[in-house]
Design a protein that fits this description.
The complex is a heterodimer of chains A (298) and B (312). Chain A has 298 residues and is mainly α. Chain A is 68% helix and 0% strand. Chain A is globular and about 75 Å long. In chain B, strands 1-2 form a two-stranded antiparallel ribbon. Chain B is mostly helical. In chain B, helix 14 runs antiparallel to helix 15. Chain B has a domain of 192 residues: MetI-like fold (Orthogonal Bundle), CATH 1.10.3720. The radius of gyration of chain B is 25 Å and the shape is globular. The chains are: A mainly alpha (298), B mainly alpha (312). Chain A: This is ABC transporter permease.
């Protein structure tokens, strides 16, 4: 990308009004994202007195009180939901990455047996979404209801990600692969020993996309998970924060003063956001490339 | 040019490992995409889930009724209402959401300090990775009846605004949420296109006396035109989808009248009630119109001399 770093001599000097407006717009945008995160984090860490004094939300922190986190992490619905979401995310991402990388390699060699037909087969679902009602009947018909597989299997391959990885594999110099083939290496060996080590960045980005998708799964849980002890975290977040149920925690806290409800609610939000904010900076540099490959080829 | 044909058996021997690698993905798409797509045929049935132990048996035993479900659908005022809401929201967002990432991309591109630009990009891309449950939670906590804004207004002895539950302004609310979530993400494609515009064009235009607005109009926007047209086509092809989770999640707060769109209609009038054939008919109608729209939009793009989604 060509990015200018100094103002070219022929360009007009910016007007003060223009500069101010520009800065104000961008500052507003950045604050619009960071401010809610800040308020929610601070409120989740506030004591009962601080929250009462502020009248609900706390903007300026006054001491740190982690009792809300201790309460929801000591067992109960939120703890269980966090485990289920972690399980879905880890198994789902591992499975989806395996399926995607294998398919991408299998489709990446020009003029292999059946490659044209197979490529068309893999690309068509990009244009035609699986319709909701028949998909619901298929998943329930397979007996996947109320299991984590109902959340994992239907999204275990995304055509968009497949296209991105395949495009990357095709950019690897063919001579490298040919020489390995002459030496008698099998395709599985070539994929594992040559192709994958060269593709760490793209695999990381696709892994992030899958992981975020699995962590965020909500609607599939609404469709396929009826037992509330199998709810993933987004479903629990929705029932506490949007449907107005009180976060019930484990019975062990009877007799102990409960931390304030506001702090508990905000702590659930923080725990839902945290994994995404935690992995995001490591991969952010790479994903722009991933998106662009997909956008150009798609 | 014709290549010498390699016998099937030799190719199989050479490529069987590739076929094995493709197999898992093939199976997943077969079961979770192709079977459901074929399953659309229950739109022509009076599908009764109780006619068998599993959906397949029920399908085999259900009665074929032709276009009966579609007839019911087209006579259902709730369906037309959902369709009207969907199209209104699409049109509204085309005007008030679609141009924003273009503006933001131009703004970001004009920044001289790459560190400031990198920081802003990092921040504004982030909400794209939040689930809709989270996004709406943020809005409720900030702008809702018990949110920070209402809290501040009460302290100032003002009557708090009714933002999250007002059906009349719901269209503004869903657009604001969509902007908050995806304005940053939407800039990526435009930023890439901006960086490919030849800088000499700007210098030559400036030498000819074109001011910054004229350069924007005559160089920047034409440079972005192919990308804008492509994204418009994709958006038009998706005109009947305006987001699903976003609307289900807020339906209780603002009511069905304002928030029912085609996708939620399919869910509430079919899966929630067990009336599967009816929902399949609505889904099929939506998919068919969507396909026509995208092909039509692509044709128009080709007429206008743009590339569209596939080269002719």
């Amino acid at each position: 990308m060509s990015v200018k770093t100094t103002r070219p001599v022929w360009e007009e000097k910016p007007t003060p009004i223009g500069q101010t407006l520009k800065a104000a717009a961008l500052a507003l945008l950045v604050l619009g994202v960071l401010f809610p995160l800040w308020v929610i984090l601070v409120t989740s860490l506030s004591s009962r007195e601080t929250i009462a004094e502020a009248g609900g939300f706390v903007v300026i922190p006054k001491g740190i009180d982690v009792s809300a986190y201790r309460t929801i992490l000591s067992g109960g619905a939120v703890t269980r939901a966090l485990w289920i979401s972690t399980l879905v995310t880890v198994i789902g991402t591992a499975l989806a990455l395996t399926v995607t990388v294998l398919a991408a390699y299998g489709l990446s060699r020009p003029r292999s047996l059946g490659s044209r037909w197979l490529l068309a087969y893999f690309l068509l679902p990009f244009l035609v979404y699986p319709p909701l009602v028949p998909k619901y009947l298929v998943v329930t018909g397979l007996g996947l209801k109320d299991t984590i597989w109902a959340l994992i299997l239907p999204s275990a391959i995304s055509v968009f990600n497949l296209v991105v990885v395949r495009g990357f594999f095709q950019g690897i110099p063919q001579e490298l692969l040919d020489s390995a083939r002459i030496d008698g290496a099998s395709d599985f060996r070539i994929l594992g020993r040559i192709v994958l080590p060269l593709s760490k960045a793209v695999v990381a980005v696709i892994g992030l996309f899958y992981a975020v998708g699995y962590w965020n799964v909500w609607f599939d849980a609404l469709l396929f998970i009826d037992r509330n002890d199998m709810y993933p975290i987004q479903r629990v977040l929705q029932s506490y924060l949007l449907a107005g149920q009180a976060p019930h925690t484990s019975g062990a806290t009877v007799g102990v003063t409960m931390p304030p409800t506001e702090a508990i609610k905000m702590a659930v939000v923080v725990l839902t956001v945290a994994p995404i904010v935690a992995v995001y900076p490591f991969i952010q540099r790479h994903f722009i490339k991933g998106v662009l490959i997909g956008a150009v080829k798609g | 040019m014709k290549r010498p044909r390699i016998p099937f058996r030799v190719r199989l021997q050479r490529d069987w490992q590739l076929l094995v690698m493709v197999a898992p993905g093939f199976l997943i798409l077969l079961v979770f995409s192709y079977v459901p797509i074929a399953g659309n045929v229950i739109a022509f049935q009076d599908y009764n889930p109780y006619l068998g132990d599993n959906p397949l048996e029920a399908f085999l035993h259900s009665e074929w009724i032709g276009f009966g479900q579609f007839q019911l659908l087209f006579e259902d005022p709730a369906f037309w209402h959902a369709l009207r809401n969907t199209l209104t929201i699409t049109a509204f967002q085309l005007v008030f959401f679609f141009p924003l990432p273009i503006l933001l991309a131009i703004l970001l591109h004009s920044l001289l300090s790459s560190r400031v630009r990198g920081f802003i990009q990092t921040v504004v891309y982030l909400p794209h990775f939040f689930s809709w449950v989270l996004v709406i939670t943020f809005f409720v906590q900030m702008l809702g009846g018990a949110g920070l804004l209402a809290q501040t207004m009460r302290e100032a002895d003002l009557q708090p605004w009714n933002i999250m539950t007002n059906p009349d302004t719901f269209i503004l609310l869903v657009t604001a949420e969509a902007v908050w979530k995806d304005i940053g993400w939407g800039t990526i494609v435009f930023l890439a296109a901006l960086s490919t515009i030849d800088q000499n064009l700007y210098e030559a235009a400036a030498a000819d006396g074109a001011g910054r607005w004229r350069r924007l109009w005559h160089i920047t926007l034409p440079g972005l035109r192919p990308v804008i047209v492509l994204l418009l086509i994709l958006r038009l092809g998706d005109a009947l989808s305006v987001g699903f989770e976003q609307f289900i999640l807020q339906r209780d707060a603002v009511g069905r009248e304002a928030s029912e769109v085609l996708d939620t209609f399919v869910y509430y009038f079919s899966i929630a009630t067990g009336n599967y054939g009816y929902g399949a008919a609505a889904g099929l109608f939506k998919a068919a119109i969507g396909l026509c729209l995208i092909l039509a939009a692509n044709k128009v793009a080709h007429r206008l001399g743009e590339q569209g989604i596939y080269a002719k």
